[in-house]
Amino acid sequence: MKFKNAIVLTGGIGTGKSTVVSFLKMFGYKIIDADKISKEVFEEKKELIQKLFNTTDRKKLRDIVFNDK
After folding, report:
1. What is d(CA 42, CA 45) in angstroms, rounded to the nearest whole number?
2. If DSSP codes are grouped into helix, strand and coil, which group holds residue 10?
């Protein structure tokens, strides 16, 4: 996909990301939800993830991935 312009929203829980996305949708912006995509990919690759990491627990995987130097 190629974009002339893009807006990227980041932030913690309760910072208003969903509210801003709702406004952007009202004005016709196309939205790409990285959280939604990552969950879909996770479900598609769950068996492989289990083989590679011996778990599909997202919290354990986060700890493994982000603590690996």
Report:
1. 5
2. coil
Q: pTM of the full predicted structure? A: 0.70
- The predicted pLDDT at position 41 comes to 96
Q: Which of 13, 62, 26 is nearest to 42 (CA)?
A: 62
Distance CA 7, CA 24 (A): 10
CB of 53 closer than 8 Å to CB of 61: yes
Distance of CA 40 to CAs 14, 23, 34, 68, Å? 23, 25, 10, 24
**What is each CA distance from 16 to 11, 12, 22, in whole angstroms?**
8, 9, 10
